[in-house]
Amino acid sequence: MVYRVRKQLVEEGFEAVLNRKQRATPAVARIFDGEKEAKLIALGLFQTSQGTRALDPAAVGEEGRGTPNC
Fold first, then answer.
1. Residue 59 — φ and ψ, nearest 5°?
2. Global confidence as pTM
3. How high is the mean pLDDT of the chain?
4. Which of 4, 17, 28, 41 has the smallest set of CB atoms within 10 Å of its CB?
């Protein structure tokens, strides 16, 4: 590792060593886009007795398992 950093310092300069290169693609592909994420969150919301909204983790867990393509 030190060899690679030293080589990069000599070839590309100090700034290149300090700043990481942006990835072309993410390391892990996204499972949900914005629309699917909103659906998943809506599944977990429910009305409480006082009329406020709360997130029920059990509902999200049951509805969200095994359905990666909502």
1. -65, -40
2. 0.32
3. 75
4. 28
